[in-house]
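pls read this protein:
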Amino acid sequence: MTVVPRPTIAFFAVEPAVATRGRTIRLTGVFGGGTGFINGVGLANVPVFSAVTLFAVAPPIEGTYTYSLTVTNAAGGTAVAFVDLTVVPPPTITAFSAAANIITVRTSTTLTAVFGDGAATVDNGVGATTSGTPISTGILTSTTTFTLTVTNDVGGTATATVTVTVVAAPDIVSFTALPATVLSGGAATLTAVFSGGIGSITDNFGSGVRVVNSGIGVSTGPLMASTIYVLNVTNVAGGIATASVTVLVSGTPP
């Protein structure tokens, strides 16, 4: 009659004990006196060696799962140990957007993230954010890409980005009328020098809007009364610079 050692298990663990679904997990047992087999979700009588880690994938559905290590000797004696794995959902990002994707230099906008199953931060100095709550970018001086990172309790992450384009502010160097005073029926030339946007001129009589180019004069046309002209320079972000000039018609009030 042959006597064989009783199978023993000194250690059996799963790492990490809490994992995001689909993440790699590690099962390790330290045992003696027999052959080891691990069973669990996706694992059916998988043979293992003592102190040698078995790599597996966490189940695709959230919940708690039990894995077993069975050590069997030549006489059919067994030792069994169990470990539990908790599977949690991965962090999710539904949306990440800027209130304005184009802004004027040295202004700001807000970012809004919609996410779940984790805590979120935004880089470039923005910091922690709450799902659905707008948060300021702070003053921007150049085009900036912001990255949202959502991290769950076990280190699983999800990321998304949004870019805010920063454009130059509209700038008016000069806006002049020559001559500044005309006779009734006379005309003046309006000249605007500007940058950073599209220029347009209106007057106090509601004569319409005229789009103008920087440095190129346009005629007022015949004037019968003194007229105030307003130059607006508007950039693609909606920033506006304004200047005005008055053309006096002799014999009429300004």
In short: The mean pLDDT is 95. The longest strand covers residues 78-88. Residues 20 and 155 are 8 Å apart (CA to CA).
